[in-house]
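Note to self: the last two entries modelled the partners one at a time, which told us nothing about the interface. This time every component goes in together.
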Amino acid sequence: MFTGSTVLLMVTVMAASAVEAVEALTIILASGITHGWRSTWEGAIVAFFALAAVVGVLGTTIIHHVDIDVLRVIVGTLLLIFGMQWITKAILRSSGFKAPHDEAKIYEKEVEELKKEKHIRHGKRDSIAFVVSFKGVFLEGMEVVMIVITFGLSNGNDYSQLKYAVLGAVIAIAVIAVIGAAVAKPLSKVPENTLKLGVGIILVSFGMFWMGEGAGVKWPMSDVFILILAAIIAATTFGLIGYFKRLHNRMQHGVHVL
Amino acid sequence: MKILKVVWKFIKSFMLFWQDFLVGDSPELALGVLIILGVAYLLHNSGILDVIAIIVLALVLMIATVWRKTRHHS
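The predicted structure of the combined assembly is written out below.
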């Protein structure tokens, strides 16, 4: 049954999966266009099944063999690390200290690199296309796998959350794949930074909550406190974006800052 | 010997993958989160103090990481 936290879980997993799927799509397109589609698809499909196997094996093993409090500490710690990484990157990009993630540019660079490779075998098996596509999908997907497993297992010995997390990831990946196949170019218009920022705030909030709960902390108002944590993190994040944006502008205009 | 080298190479690249995945270019984040976890364990019976400590430490970690990175990027 869908509850408020299930919907939030699915939306978070979908947003995180969409971001990573867009990045994987860029690599698949670059590989397919330069080295042919056959091995590119094979690499992507093998990577997808490898990731599914990781979720299945790791998820099942953890559910049956890890104590709920230990699980919450591991889940919380991982979510807090991932969330902090996503938020800090998003703040740096939003404030101008880091270049925005540009799929079109990444695509062009990838195509140039792949064109330099010899032995392009259109229509036949091409090991370079297979490896590039496999690595692209597997590495981008690994972060999604970790988010799916950690979010999916937050309730402990219960498969229902994991099922919803997997469903959210599969829906997002399918949507990006269909759009990617239809437009056949990198999806530069997906607001990756905004998605990363939103997902980062949710990951940090849930991460703090579960890590604390696993360590024995009694949060006031129980699960509802996650919303308060999210509000505190969001307010700090937007405050930092505003401050560092002004700082960046001052630096651009040559004003000396500390 | 050749098999040992291959196994060692695999273990090394596996460890490097996880190091890059969890730590990346922000070692202070991973370390900071572990410190927050330690503080949560230490203070978990101290009433509201544990909650305040976790929130404050997480915010300090976030601000310090962004601050360090802006120095690096500028």
